[in-house]
Write a structure and sequence with these properties.
Helices cover about 35% and strands about 25% of the residues. The protein has a domain of about 150 residues: P-loop containing nucleotide triphosphate hydrolases (Rossmann fold, 3-Layer(aba) Sandwich), CATH 3.40.50. The strands form two sheets. The chain has a six-stranded mixed β-sheet, with helices on both faces. About 40% of the residues are buried. The chain has ten helices and ten strands. Helix 3 packs across helix 5. The N terminus is likely disordered. The chain has about 260 residues and is an alpha/beta fold.
Length: about 260
């Protein structure tokens, strides 16, 4: 099955796109002619077997890597030549790129620090307590959004793993991203944490666009509006989960890894 054409989608509905993206490393092409369109307000998943080029594509879109060739656009603007910090300021934010989680600080203190970035203050640990309190209302709203009510005065180091990932996400949300890129958000989580974070992603996506790389196919099936399947640096298939999971090429690419959720 060839990827479904998206050329009939109105341009205003496409918030992030890559066109004919190529990334070569000394003759090896980790991404080889990939085109991708992420629709505004959607949850779009990138999946594929190990070595498919998912992380490289993520790094291209967030400008941690410069494409060998091709173009990246955000909200109709060519961002191919921008630096990661410039792209983040536009609203394309990768989890862990802006997230500022410090184990010795409490949840509230972590979010105050993250909110300084949104205010244009950078990270200033020497601010007085009174001055930092100006961020408390926003910090409390973020805690409520990610289910960390009651943890305001808990040191980050004392949080269970799933709650700490929620704090990392809240720190990323503090910069008010338009497009949130999540790289394997469920990695290393127990089942109960996976369900909690999946619900959280679904919630935050109500007002944002989410592009995620994820190996947990049950999560992909339940969350994603659209899925792009990569294999050997190329787009193998694209569509909803029902269509891509039945594609013989996709099933073949996943042999030995288990495709079905």
């Amino acid at each position: 099955m060839s990827p479904e054409p998206v050329s009939d989608v109105p341009a205003d509905d496409i918030v992030l796109s890559g066109t004919d993206l190529v990334k070569g490393f000394k003759g090896f092409y980790a991404v080889d002619g990939v085109s991708l369109q992420v629709r505004r307000g959607s949850i779009h998943a990138l999946i594929g077997p190990n070595g498919a080029g998912k992380t490289t594509l993520f790094n291209l879109l967030t400008k941690f890597l410069t494409p060998t060739s091709g173009q990246i656009r955000f909200d109709g603007r060519d961002i191919t030549g921008l630096k990661p910090a410039e792209v983040a300021r536009l609203g394309v934010v990768r989890s862990f790129q802006i997230s500022a989680v410090f184990d010795r600080l409490t949840v509230l203190q972590n979010l105050r620090v993250a909110l300084q970035r949104k205010a244009g203050d950078g990270f200033r640990f020497w601010e007085t307590e009174n001055r930092m309190r100006r961020f408390d209302d926003e910090a409390e709203a973020l805690m409520e959004e990610v289910g960390l009510e009651g943890f305001a005065h808990t040191p980050a180091a004392a949080l269970p793993y799933g709650r700490k990932r929620a704090l990392e996400l809240a720190s990323t949300l503090a910069v008010d991203p338009k497009v949130l890129l999540l790289d394997e958000p469920m990695a290393g989580m127990a089942h109960e944490d996976i369900d909690r974070i999946a619900d959280l992603i679904r919630h935050v996506a109500q007002s944002r666009t989410v592009l995620m790389v994820e190996h947990n196919l049950s999560v992909v099936a339940s969350l994603s509006d659209r899925i792009t399947v990569l294999a050997r640096g190329k787009v193998l298939a694209e569509g909803d989960y029902a269509s891509v999971s039945q594609d013989p090429q996709v099933v073949g690419a996943y042999m030995g890894e288990g495709l079905h959720a």
